[in-house]
Structures
1.
Amino acid sequence: MDKGTVSGIPAWKRGLLVGILGLAAVGAAAGFRGSREEAGGGKVLEADLEETEGSAGKVSEKIREPLEETKKIALTFDDGPHRVYTERLLDGLKERGVKVTFFLLGSNIEGKEEIVKRMSEEGHLIGNHTFYHVDITKLEPEEASAEILDTSRRITDITGQPVEYVRPPFGNWDKELEGDVTMIPIFWTVDTLDWTTGNADQIVQKVVTSVEENDIILMHDSYDSTVQAALRIIDLLQAEGYEFVTADELILE
Ligand code: NI
């Protein structure tokens, strides 16, 4: 595995962190960094807050917020499972105790049943991404239903769990289908476009500079660069107080 991402924070990542914090209010950035770098730094931070209280009470309220709330985000991976990269990703997620969401292609499952089983056993959410990666809105209703139902059946045969969520390829979902197939569509708020680049740094940069609370991030576990980027994103954003949850938690809130 990519050991460099596990321990410590290399200089380039510190640069990124400062970049992210720079987007927030300057006071908030200073307070947040201070609170993490000082052991038992709560008191130091409170002192900082008191100082800003008099001249800018509203600023100090903003400083407290990120420390008290958990900021949730969801990583989602489409088009898998992939024989090599999905397992590599699962290894990294397990090390970090992070759960994500996989939207599987029915046509990709055969021969990779063990990987699907592992996803389920390790607490990840598994959704449906159609059988052949089709635009569901361009099919006859029976074909469209078959795309969804055949995929769900393959997944359920392995996991024993019903499949409740679908990520429609291209983001095109036919609401007329909902009565027939009873799936809840899950879209995304950040498209990493990870498939357009083999460069993990680029993917990391794109996510950490644009991410906000409750974001649903779209990635593909079919690339080495995506796996590397996803694990670095987790390390960076966990350090910023983000909690990684499965996508259902964000759409049901
Ligand atoms: Ni896709």
2.
Amino acid sequence: MGSLLSLPPTVTEVSGDLPAVTVCNRHARAKVFLQGAHVASFRPVGQGELLWMSVRSLFAPGKPIRGGIPVCFPWFGMHAGRPELPAHGIARLLPWTLTGAEDLPDGSTRLVLGLQSSVETAASWPQSFALTYSVSVGAALNVALEVRNTGAQPLVFEEALHTYLDVADVRRVGVEGLAGARYLDKVDGGIEKTQTGTLTFTAETDRVFPGTTGTCRVDDPVLGRRIVVAKTGSATTVIWNPWIAKAARMPDFGDEEWPGMLCIEAANAAADHLTLAPGQTQVMAQTISVG
Ligand code: TA6
């Protein structure tokens, strides 16, 4: 990768087909691929891995990575109108630039990565934008996506931090923080329902919760841990587990892997999509920790 940056001692470059950097400090270890500014691993000291990664994931230029934290921009899910375009947008498939790496006084490490609109992005999405993504690796992982409208027209977009969490058995976990919230059930024709109490998993689960800004907590009785997922600048929460049949249909997802994960996604999608005036910026952030 030959970064022009002078990297702090906690950051190491990993060259290869898909360049990455690893972070190892007194709080945690992490790995971030430059493609998609994709956080692939986060392991606090004294804890197991918090982010799930499929053993079948591809790590190839232009191919999505199945796990960690995919950065979805500028649309969520399938592109409305152009189904031939990649699901969840183009940002996760493109090489970002590492523009900053520093050790902070509290012992955490902050990486900054950038992606600007280009001739390549314009082929899929003819808008001008600049993305800045900060990844702070400490006892907690904080990721923050800043979107800037660098064009002369309003910028209308969706975004998501599509976070895959590692659990022992999704059939035994509960997600707190969404009780009473409305959701669109993508497994049941997108009809609107209301979440009653703890969200548990008994089948394929794909729920989009509009207008939800709070913290979610995953109670994992088998691992004896609670993963806390907080966020700012996000009005949509998405909860997903593919279960048996959908996992089997995904070539980059092992048939037996689905019990080991669930996604809790910070997003601004569908009715919560965003519009930025020229020169305006917006930041969406997610913080993941063991509670
Ligand atoms: O966020 C849930 C979801 O939209 C599911 O419908 C499923 O498609 C998942 O994202 C994974 O999408 P991907 O394009 O990464 O395979």
